[in-house]
């Protein structure tokens, strides 16, 4: 796995790790995504999309299992990222795959809502 050069998130209690291997980028989110996390998360997702396009990856996996809560500002950052990905040419578009925690019902509701928004993407949610 090769680490990606993404903006640092220096919000106490929230972490972002990203790596690239082959045709897949993996993004791991952990902690509490609250109001101070919205702008840094947005910056990470903008850069993540640029890297996915530059590298020509086929899939971006977002490991959501370590997220304890997410407020609307962070949810909006995810929506904006998905909208950007959805607007790319189908020939260069990557699939989006979320990993969620079956014990966190809010994750299921949030990711289901994101899936409705991302109707033109190959969008998958896997509960583990």
What does this entry look like structurally?
The chain is α/β, with parallel strands linked by helices and 128 residues long. It has a single domain (2-127), classed as STAS domain (Transcription Regulator spoIIAA), CATH 3.30.750.24. The chain has three helices and six strands. The chain has helices at 38-55, 72-86, 105-117; strands at residues 2-3, 14-21, 24-33, 59-70, 95-100, 123-127. The protein has a six-stranded mixed beta sheet with strand order 1-2-3-4-5-6, with helices on one face. Helix 2 (72-86) links the parallel strand 4 (59-70) and strand 5 (95-100). Helix 1 packs parallel to helix 2 (72-86). It is globular and about 35 Å long. The model has no long low-confidence stretch (mean pLDDT 92).
Quick overview of this protein structure:
The protein is α/β, with parallel strands linked by helices. Helix content is 36%, strand content 34%.
